[in-house]
Design goal:
This protein is α/β, with parallel strands linked by helices and 283 residues long. The protein is built from eleven helices and ten strands. It has two domains: 218 residues, 2-enoyl-CoA Hydratase, Chain A, domain 1, CATH 3.90.226; 48 residues, Orthogonal Bundle (Lyase 2-enoyl-coa Hydratase, Chain  A, domain 2). A six-stranded mixed beta sheet has the order 1-2-3-5-7-10, sandwiched between helices. Strands 4-6-8-9 form a four-stranded mixed beta sheet. This is ClpP/crotonase.
Length: 283
């Protein structure tokens, strides 16, 4: 698969990167036994996605678990250790630094230049929701069980769930209920509320296959068009309609000059699939 064969070099100790098809990266969470996150894990995940953003041949990413029975059990509570400090103010500063770094790592999925499709299965608790909410497209296996679990361990979710999920689902009442109670909810309820867009019957293999098919389709499109679409969708989420329209004028006044448009027209005349150049040198 040419240059995409080298995506494995982006792997880390807890994250495995491969390329199942041209221009598609598959990132798998792989920390036994339950993909519980500690600081080295979340730091590595952020670094992997920042590195993926710098790969000009990638056009779509699938995030999944390498573990057959579950996606992620959440935070590794045993690893949450802070220095003993009598001064509460200094301890607060330490916590602020840790939380900010944690948020930055998980937000790497959102700031990735390429669409990120997450494929969940089995248990998807706590931090799983933070991760899912930072992705662009969300699929789940029918056997998945979700929970905004943080309230059960004495804290408010602070890595993105409460910031992103209300905007994703458009159901403030249900998000509040789930965050206040920490109760489990099924794949069917996740789809109904809009947290996921597709429920795939089965488990890990089936949902990952579905996500990879979508990624493969995206990878056939103009990388300039897809990159711009993700960028403008994120801008629209956080700005008014008029602000987004004005911003789109500025963005597309540059991006419409791409050779990809000419290639698309020529391919239509040839009745063949267009062939797009990669995004060029490392970004």
């Amino acid at each position: 698969m040419s240059s995409s064969d080298s995506y494995s070099r982006l792997s880390g100790q807890f994250t495995k990167v491969s390329s199942p098809s041209p221009h598609v990266a598959l990132v798998q969470l792989a920390r036994n036994p339950v993909n519980a996150f500690h600081e080295p894990f979340w730091t590595e995940l952020g670094n992997v996605f920042d590195a993926i953003s710098n790969e000009p041949s990638i056009r779509a990413v699938v995030l999944a678990s390498a573990l057959p029975k579950l996606f992620c059990a959440g935070i590794d509570l045993a690893a949450l250790k802070f220095t003993e400090e009598v001064d509460a103010a200094r301890k607060a500063l330490e916590l602020q630094k840790t939380i900010t770094s944690f948020q930055h790592s998980i937000s790497a999925l959102e700031r990735c230049r390429y669409p990120v499709i997450v494929a969940t299965h089995g248990v998807a608790y706590g931090l799983s929701i933070d991760i899912i909410a930072a992705c662009d497209v969300r699929y789940t296996a029918s056997n998945a069980i979700f929970s905004i679990k943080e309230v059960d361990v004495g804290l408010a979710a602070d890595i993105g769930t409460l910031a992103r999920t209300p905007k994703i689902t458009g159901n403030q009442s249900l998000v509040s209920e789930l965050a206040f109670t920490g109760r489990n909810f099924s794949a069917a309820e996740a789809e109904k509320m809009g947290l996921v867009s597709r429920v795939v019957e089965g488990g890990r293999d089936e949902v990952v296959a579905a996500a990879l098919e979508t990624a493969k389709l995206i990878a056939e499109k103009s990388p300039i068009a897809v990159l711009g679409t993700k960028h403008l969708l994120q801008h629209a989420r956080d700005h008014s309609v008029q602000e987004n329209l004005q911003y789109t004028v500025v963005w597309n006044s540059a991006m419409l000059q791409t050779q990809d448009m000419a290639e698309t027209m020529q391919a239509m005349q040839r009745k063949t699939k267009p062939k797009f150049a990669n995004l060029g040198p490392k970004l």
